[in-house]
Amino acid sequence: MQRQAAFISKAKPLKGALHCHTTRSDGVGSPEEVIKKHVANGYDFMAITDHWYYNYKNFAPGENILIVPGVENAHSLYGEGIHCFHTVCIGPSAEDGNGYGQEFKSETGRVTDQFEYQRILDEYHANKNMTIYCHPEWSGTPARDFDHLTGNFAMEIWNSGCALEHEMDTNAAYWDELLMQNKIIYGVASDDGHRMHQHCVGWVMVSAKPELNAILDSLKNGAFYSSCGPEITDFYIDGKTAVLECSPCEKIYFHYGRYPTRIARNEDGPISRAEFTVPDYYRYLRASVMDFNGKRAWTNPIFIK
Q1: Burial 195-210 (b: 16+ CB within 10 A, else e)
Q2: What is the pLDDT of residues 262-284, one digit of tens each?
Q3: By residue range, what is the domain housing residue 103?
Q4: What is the DSSP string of 157-174?
Q5: Which of 227, 250, 275 represents a domain boundary (last residue)?
Q6: Number of compact structural domains in the chain
Q7: What are phi and psi for residue 166, nearest 5 degrees?
Q8: Angle in degrees, CA 116, 120, 125, rounded to 5
Q9: What CATH number is attached to the domain comprising 292?
Q10: 204/119 same-domain check
């Protein structure tokens, strides 16, 4: 049996936000307001990733939430229109080797292509930061523009700001193209919240102890799933049978990039479990669900042995 790493432990997962903006850069809400909104919505941890300026600080120290150190950096590509690379960096404490200090201002500018941008990613990683590739559709970067980047542990498969304002980056655009190249890269739902209504719409559910290093390790190893509402409680392959269990929903999807999506549904009411016979030629399998309000949740892949 292969069980996806998020579901090996039966402990309650931690709810987290990985991409948030405040008035420290171009957000509308103050850091304190944004933190308090996440606490009110049941978050266990969050990263305040304002553009260019690194953050460790809890701006609402009376609130019980773990702040993950982080920042969002951006480099434009030459050419017409919006065409850019945005990267969220998250990392450990300074005591554990994070190379960036509070309010450290990141390099910005233009690059020719992903191969030139790799140097900048390498610098983030050398400073012990993990990186997320952000909103590929909004950035105007189809997979061929970023598929040779190395070192990103994840990419955004849902981005609330892009989804709510532009109906883009809503359902794992280009993720399967990277997975089909045998790249191990995980998918995160995040808000990229600039306006207050964009916060607390998409999140990750992480199987970890409520400690910074444990959360980072689980993210790095794909021990999480992403959601805009539905809960996923198990995902595994036993022999050739894949099983997905979740909160009551309308549809359950099984995805592999070189085959049409298989969809399980019940015309008579909600479903909370589906099975799928996995063909021999599948190299990975991921699943997602949609509830009756159109809200989705996504597993990370099982890479089939």
Answers
A1: eeebbbbbbbbbbbee
A2: 999 988 899 999 999 999 999 99
A3: 2-227
A4: EEEHHHHHHHS-S-S-TT
A5: 227
A6: 2
A7: -130, -5
A8: 135
A9: 2.60.40
A10: yes
Q: Which residue has the tokens 């015309």?
A: 267
Block means of pLDDT (10 residues each) for the chain, length 305 residues?
Answer: 96 97 97 98 98 97 96 93 94 98 94 97 98 98 98 98 98 98 98 97 98 98 98 98 98 96 92 97 98 98 95
CATH of the domain at 34: 3.20.20.140
The helix, strand and coil proportions of the chain, stated in percent and rounded to the nearest 5, come to 20, 35, 45
> Nearest to residue 204, comparing CAs of 3, 36, 45, 8?
45
End-to-end CA, the chain: 10
> What does DSSP assign to residue 193?
B
Specify whether the CB–CB gap between 290 and 211 falls below 8 A.
no
SS3 124: helix
Q: Is 196 helix (H, G, I), strand (E, B) or coil?
A: helix
> pTM for this one?
0.97
Cα(244)–Cα(225) distance, integer angstroms: 12
The amino acid at residue 77 is L
Give the residue ranges of DSSP H helices in the chain.
31-40, 114-126, 160-166, 175-179, 212-220
Give pLDDT tens digits for 126-154.
Answer: 999 999 999 999 999 999 999 999 999 99
